[in-house]
Design goal:
By secondary structure, the chain is an alpha/beta fold. The protein has 11 helices and 10 strands. The chain has helices spanning 32-46, 61-73, 94-101, 111-114, 120-130, 143-149, 171-178, 197-204, 226-239, 248-260, 280-290, and strands spanning 5-10, 16-21, 51-56, 76-82, 105-109, 134-135, 162-167, 185-190, 210-212, 269-274. Strand 1 and strand 2 form a beta hairpin. Helix 2 (61-73) packs parallel to helix 3 (94-101) and helix 6 (143-149) packs across helix 7 (171-178). The radius of gyration is 19 Å and the shape is globular. Bound molecules: pyridoxal-5'-phosphate (PLP).
Length: 300
């Protein structure tokens, strides 16, 4: 068996739960962000580009992944960061601080301007400021990213009935769908509110054996509550598997809740994809500490 594939537990009705530890494939460029960057880096080299430019928020897994990949594979990196107020708070932000240590140069912009980041005028302006670059979209999703994510599932995963993963922009689940088998069902758990995802996934996915389960976003992107924190801490105590607060915990919570509610037929073999994101735990804990809420108590 693949070392990244482990059985977690068996529930009643012989429903068994497994996890694929994509969080372990690279020490910093974890999980799906590594898969999404892989062929983009090849393409950037092919185009003789020396700089990668991308976008993200304060605790973005993608920002850190690009910074680390740039350092490892010899690219300069530029991060356009949402929120001008962060410019003076880099030291207090574990994600940005680490990205800076990897050599990333930041450009902090207002939330308003950030919304225009896909307009040609904005890209022109950035080009004037920084010169040529290879652009990687927010969250890292594009066609090459989906091709990279098609490598998440391998031969050993063929006998699972259900494959479950967290959804942000939909790139990762699209790759998983494309490499799944007809008889498998892929369930996506959006970590944010909004119904634009269905359409985005259809752009990249070439099969219909999937569904989005939209009941487990916990109020929206990066929103968490004490119930979810306790879930993360309990899950870690029971199974020694660390889950991140933004994505994988919401998906895992959802799957276990659905098992308890009888959603899955008896004898189902369910595979969770651990897409990583553990670098975000420290940042989230600093927010929780300020609000005097229980912290995430896992070793990452
Ligand atoms: C970015 C991210 C996702 C979402 O991936 P998409 O391809 O944007 O849907 C899921 N899990 C983790 C840990 C992530 O960092």
């Amino acid at each position: 068996m693949d070392i990244q594939l482990q059985k977690i537990v068996e529930f009643k009705n012989q429903i068994s739960l497994f996890i694929k530890r994509e969080d372990l494939i690279h020490p910093i460029i974890s999980g799906n962000k590594f898969r999404k960057l892989k062929y983009n880096l090849t393409e950037a080299k092919k185009q003789n580009q020396t700089t990668l430019l991308t976008f993200g928020g304060a605790f973005s897994n993608h920002i850190l992944a690009v910074a680390a990949a740039g350092k490892e594979y010899g690219f300069k990196t530029i991060g356009i960061i949402r929120g001008e107020e962060l410019e003076t708070k880099i030291e207090a932000n574990p994600t940005l601080k680490k990205a800076q240590e990897f050599g990333m140069v930041f450009d902090f912009i207002s939330r308003e301007e950030y919304r225009t980041k896909n307009n040609p005028e904005f890209v022109n302006k950035v080009e004037k400021k920084f010169g040529n670059f290879y652009l990687i979209p927010e969250g890292g999703t594009n066609e090459l990213a989906v091709i990279g994510c098609q490598e998440i599932l391998t031969k050993v995963d063929e006998d699972f009935d259900f494959i479950c993963c967290a959804v942000g922009t939909g790139g990762t689940i699209s790759g998983i769908i494309n490499s799944s088998k007809d008889c498998q069902k892929v369930l996506g758990f959006p970590a944010l509110k909004g119904d634009f995802l269905q359409e985005d996934i259809r752009k990249f996915a070439n099969m219909d054996n999937w569904e989005l389960i939209t009941d487990y976003h916990f109020g929206g992107y990066a929103k968490i509550d004490e119930k979810l924190i306790h879930f993360i801490n309990d899950f870690y105590m029971k199974y020694s598997i660390p889950l991140d607060p933004i994505y994988t915990s919401k998906m895992t919570f959802g799957v276990i809740d659905l098992i308890e509610k009888g959603y899955f037929p008896p004898k189902s073999k369910i595979l969770l994809i651990h897409t990583g994101g553990l670098q975000g735990v420290n940042g989230m804990n600093s927010v929780l500490r300020k609000k005097n809420i229980t912290q995430i108590n896992i070793n990452v």
